[in-house]
């Protein structure tokens, strides 16, 4: 049966690759090196093995990718795009797409994304976060929502059924927290940043009914934000050491090293947690949508065409060709083959027999279920990084105890938000 | 004769020209945009006078950053010199010349390490769950030790790494300086039954006053440029407890807001403050 499945998958892959080769036949005329500024992703590293394929496809152009971690990548892309514009392609994300688009730092993607690469095949949620002001700005390289990931063995030993509501979740986290045995109830993100601690806090805020703005008036400074922060701080009492000033890496590292019972994190965690190469708890992991009323944090990162480095239409077309090739079905199929779960974005790949064969039906079901509660939690505005980062600092102060008054922190943010709106007018 | 008189100008002009382009142009531009309201996302800007400078003094993060920067300077410069002098004397007094040379070589290793690499190595070493530096505490008490997440210990922990890099290096310099001193004053003091600490406190260190002051100046300037170390280890956190002035300026300019005019006003104030402080200290020392 397994052999038969493998045969079917191989035929499917062969079909996919032959489609790709047809595309390759439409060679463009590009030259030089396409410079890309990105953050480390296995999928992008894998592309480097196929440089010659792109050279052939583009008519002679090569590419060079510079990598920086998330916060540094955000700072450097902003600095580069607004000044010298050295990079042809930028790695941007849901949090700064509005800023890059409204400042004119990136070109509308679909104007230069060849139709045969089928942009519509991307997961609809990811397409949504790549869209701002009615236009698409990046092609996804990763994205998704949130999942509650838990240790089946620890929950069974403690007689706990996987929680479906937030109250059950908080109770389970408290019960499972056993620091003397090196097991912590959960792992959150404490590190400052709109994409770090604020990202994990927002599902609580939105889940409790909070909103950021009503038109241009800030409305977040209410009981929902206070309750969300109180709950977040309460859970932090049971969060693994190091997470108080840590981000995704620290939270995921604590879980995959076997020191955390359950956590709510972005969907790529599952791929890492079930992979024996990167996880000590592979085979003991269960996953479900986040407990109600939490919303999932819909996100997407991807490649966009820089405006300054691509001065003419031909350059933009070459950068567009690179983005299309890098995010093509063929390359995504290679990522699937390489076991890069978090790098998969296309519906055709995630519904393929190979995906089901590799990850089983449970994960597919969990992803489908979590899609129903995935939402855009942040303020979709060019000034979101500014506001989100400021709240990130206040939140980190609350987490580490240098500030204790939640309402005072929110009032400070409210004043900052009003000033921010005034400055933008 | 006239040609001879022009020679210094001939040699100095290209160097001064390059310096003017590299140093004065960006400085003049930073001063200019500090009087504007430019942001990265908006290429145009208007002149707004001293508004950025006035705003700074009601900005709690700026006030906090001044305190953190001053504390950082005092702690790292003071501790580095203390370690350097103490260790230098210890090596000179207790270790054979052959072993001294070997230890001197080892003490040079930390400062040769790129600062970012050192910061990453120590960040992992201080990790509460897997860190080698925190392991003994965890093994003895059973509790994790999270030094970098604690506002009371984070700055001191980062300062420890800075002192590890520079204190050991400066210890080698102090050792070599001690080796160059003439032996007669030491022998005379010993004949007068002076104790070892008295010999160093009243003879050796006063003889080394000028080079030690130079070392202090070098360290003061170096400590002002500790951005990379703090950025990698804490990013200014927890909260804003390790956020120095240069880090806050960078944060405002490039990480959070893109408010380059506001960030430039901080940079200009830092430049003025350090110029005045260094001139004052230099004059006092002379």
Topology readout:
The complex is a heterodimer of chains A (425) and B (286).
Chain A: H1 2-24, E1 33-38, H2 42-47, H3 51-58, E2 62-67, H4 70-82, E3 89-93, H5 97-102, E4 106-107, H6 124-129, E5 131-132, E6 135-136, E7 139-144, E8 146-151, H7 152-157, H8 166-176, H9 197-207, E9 213-214, E10 217-218, H10 223-236, H11 248-256, E11 262-266, H12 268-273, E12 285-288, E13 296-297, E14 299-306, H13 313-326, H14 329-337, H15 347-350, H16 353-373, E15 374-375, H17 384-400, H18 406-424
Chain B: H1 2-34, H2 51-56, H3 60-94, H4 97-112, H5 115-125, H6 135-141, H7 154-180, H8 184-191, H9 196-207, H10 209-224, H11 227-233, H12 245-255, H13 260-285
Helix pairs in contact in B: 1-13, 3-7, 3-10, 4-7, 5-11, 7-10, 8-9, 12-13
Q: How would you summarize what this structure contains?
A:
The complex is a heterodimer of chains A (425) and B (286). Chain A has 425 residues and is of the alpha+beta class.
Which descriptors apply to this entry?
heterodimer, A: 425 residues, D-Maltodextrin-Binding Protein, domain 2, 2 domains, six-stranded mixed β-sheet, three-stranded antiparallel β-sheet, 14% strand, B: 286 residues, mainly alpha, MetI-like fold, 13 helices
Describe this structure in words.
- The complex is a heterodimer of chains A (about 425) and B (about 290).
- Chain A is an alpha+beta fold and about 425 residues long.
- Chain A folds into two domains: about 1-145 and about 300-350, 3-Layer(aba) Sandwich (D-Maltodextrin-Binding Protein, domain 2), CATH 3.40.190.10; about 145-295 and about 370-425, D-Maltodextrin-Binding Protein, domain 2.
- Chain A is about 50% helix and about 15% strand.
- Chain A is built from 18 helices and 15 strands.
- In chain A, a hairpin with a 2-residue loop joins strand 5 (about 130) and strand 6 (about 135).
- In chain A, helix 9 (about 195-205) packs across helix 10 and helix 17 (about 385-400) packs antiparallel against helix 18 (about 405-425).
- Chain B is an all-alpha fold and about 290 residues long.
- Chain B has a single domain (about 35-285), classed as MetI-like fold (Orthogonal Bundle).
- Chain B is built from 13 helices and no strands.
- In chain B, helix 5 packs parallel to helix 11 and helix 8 (about 185-190) packs antiparallel against helix 9.
- Chains A and B meet through helix 4 and helix 17 of A and helix 12 of B.
